[in-house]
Amino acid sequence: MSDSNTTKFTNPSTFILLGIPGLEVAHVWISIPFCTMYVIVILGNFTILFIVKREPSLHEPMYYFLCMLAITDLVLSTSTIPKILAIFWFNSREINFSACLAQLYFVHCFSAIESGIFVAMAVDRYVAICHPLRHSTILTNRMVVKIGLAVVLRGSMLALPYPFLARHWPYCRTNIIPHTHCEHMEVVKLACADIRVSIYYGLFVLLCRIGLDVFFIALSYTQILRAIFSLPTKDARLKTFGTCGSHLCVILAFYIPTLFSSLTSRFGHNLPLHFHIFIANVYLLVPPMLNPIIYGVRTKLIWDRLIRLFTHKGTTVFSWCSKSETNLHADLAGDMVLGHLP
To answer: How many CB atoms lie within 10 A of CB 5?
Structure first.
């Protein structure tokens, strides 16, 4: 590999991932928060999946979408973090060319899937709050399955051209990637060809994945906020707004780093490289870590089941955090009905 900077090749057998250039001496220390967050991702999302599967009262659209989000977060983080930790701990920098393209595909595919799930959850919340009496008839199990398949299919198709275009380009400069993982633009920048097709397609996907999705999420939450402010009592408004506000924080934690990373990789040439790499890793770890906390701990039914799971005690001891067997949507629906919303 000593000639990797000078040897010409059109199909490199391996790429070399540098991790965070300039901060090599701090790799072990940087790995500590990475590893800690990854452990939280694994434990948190598997806990959500286990509790929803175990509890029949949670077998409803809101929790199905939550399970889809948990699976997506697990795949998204696992596709990159183990290799990143191997670089930090064991200096294992080589990655097979096909494995690099597969990693690139999984990152973009499941990022698009997660974005689609956020849209589905925003629509679910809109129906639950603005049309509570029709929620069970609109979002049936069949409809949830159709939405899930559409989200997965869209993500898979949008990400498919990335590895095909990357494999098509000839690589005759170097096989060294100054990054922690096979990020799309960092890979195609190594090609000795006109890569404008990859750049334009990346911008197109960015528009579809962030532009359109954020538009539909904003539209849903605009209607939700109108419904919230129509509630007759301050307590009802605060309770409903608190539930939706925490979800908006998770959505922003996903989209802002994604958008910033995508734009800086194309136009942020004056930014320090380690800053760009740090931002690129934020959306691989922070949203998957926050999602089970926000959607799990703050959803009282899941929190109640989690406490029971670890204590094996009845609900009387923990009545402070218990709700009826009705799920969160039904609780919000009651607020809407009491408020006599149209």
So the answer is: 11
Could you give phi then psi for residue 14, rounded to 5 degrees? -140, 155
Report d(CA 311, CA 299) in Å as an integer: 19
Query: Is 275:315 a contact under the CB 8 Å cutoff?
Result: no
> Residue 112: what residue type?
A
Tens-place pLDDT, residues 57-71? 888 888 899 999 999
Strand order in the sheet with 176-177: 94-96, 14-17, 176-177
Q: How far apart are CA 251 and CA 254, in angstroms?
A: 5
pLDDT in tens, 221-236: 888 888 877 777 777 6
How far is residue 28's CA from residue 57's CA, in Å, rounded to a whole number? Answer: 44
If one counts every other C-beta atom within 10 angstroms of the C-beta of residue 341, the result is 17
Helix, strand, or coil here: 8?
coil
Q: Please state the pTM of the whole predicted model.
A: 0.84
Quickly list H helices, the chain: 27-54, 61-78, 81-90, 97-130, 135-138, 141-159, 161-168, 184-188, 196-206, 213-229, 234-267, 273-291, 300-311, 328-338
Backbone φ, ψ for residue 3 (5° rounding):
-95, 15
Closest CA to 55 of 311, 304, 310: 304
Would you say 108 and 184 are in contact if contact means Cβ atoms under 8 Å apart?
Answer: yes
Q: Rounded CA gap, 40 and 286, in Å?
A: 10
Look at 310 and 5; give whichever has higher pLDDT: 310
Sign of the Cα torsion 305, 311, 314, 319 reads negative
CB pairs under 8 A, 24+ apart, for 23-28?
23/274, 27/87, 27/88, 27/89, 28/88, 28/89
Pair of tokens at residue 289 = 């870590």
Band (pLDDT 50/70/90 cuts) for residue 300 is low
